[in-house]
Amino acid sequence: MNLESILFTQGFGSRRQCRALIGDARVSVDGTVCTEADTDFAVADGTLRFSVDGVEWPYREHAYLLLNKPAGYECSRDPQHHPSVFSLLPPQFAERGVQCVGRLDQDTTGLLLLSDDGKFVHQFTSPKRKVPKLYVATTRHPLDDAQLAALRDGVLLHGESKPSAALDAQARDTHTLALSVLEGKYHQVKRMIAAAGNRCEALHRERVGGFVLPATLAPGAWQWLDDNELDALRGG
Ligand code: URA
Asked: Which keywords does the record carry (predicted)?
């Protein structure tokens, strides 16, 4: 693939802008400055690394990203009341079409996946492909056995005709609930907790499929997902 196409596919602007970056000697490949936009590089093995203005990036056919979402950010690219989670990411990701894989509320924290691979996004958001998600909620009132049983057996959410049941609901302490759900309806977890007779004061997503948010990833920080992590996501 030629260098212009490499930069273009990785989100570094229009083809014209990518040619200009290269012509201005701002791009290097494997440590060597390249000013010829038509120079070809092998990208198939995914090992190509290039730098733009001294910042190194790997070439990736698709971007699979993990963000430890802080509170106070909206998952929309066109946010209404709070900054977008995209303001926490390098701009080339939005440019290359990366989108959130499902949404978290602005005040929900934790594991947020993003990708520009439409199949992957569909796989994790389609209601048919049920992927378990583990949330940890802080509740206003003490948890009791009746609430936990109601969450496991199914609670009727306002405006729904069928009850929603948690895969599992466990109290970690008096006011901390670990709730595992398959679906991703609007405000699902908060509504389930309310329907069980309590109230959600804070919500954090800890796990999707078999993948747990790494403790080393600080709130607001992002990382690429590697093949092992993608496999863990698909496992339950
Ligand atoms: N359920 C909610 O209520 N909010 C979220 O952000 C995610 C799941």
From this structure: Isomerase, RNA-binding
Give 203: exposed, middle or buried? Use CB within 10 Å, 0-12, 13-18, 19+.
buried
Which of ligand 1's atoms lies nearest the C-alpha of 205?
Answer: 7
Chain centroid to CA 147: 30
Task: Give the chain's domains with CATH numbers.
Answer: 3-58 (3.10.290.10), 64-127+210-235 (3.30.70.580), 132-208 (3.30.70.1560)
User: What are 33's two structure tokens?
Assistant: 């400055």
Q: How does pLDDT run across 41-58, given as a tens digit for each residue? A: 999 767 899 999 999 999
What are the residues whose beta carbons fall under 8 Å from the beta carbon of 155, sequence distance 6 or more? 163, 164, 165, 192, 195, 196
**Residue type at 71?**
A
Residues near ligand 1 (Cβ within 6 A): 104-105, 108, 187-190, 203
In the reported structure, the alpha carbon of residue 60 is separated from the centroid of ligand 1 by a whole-number distance in angstroms of 30
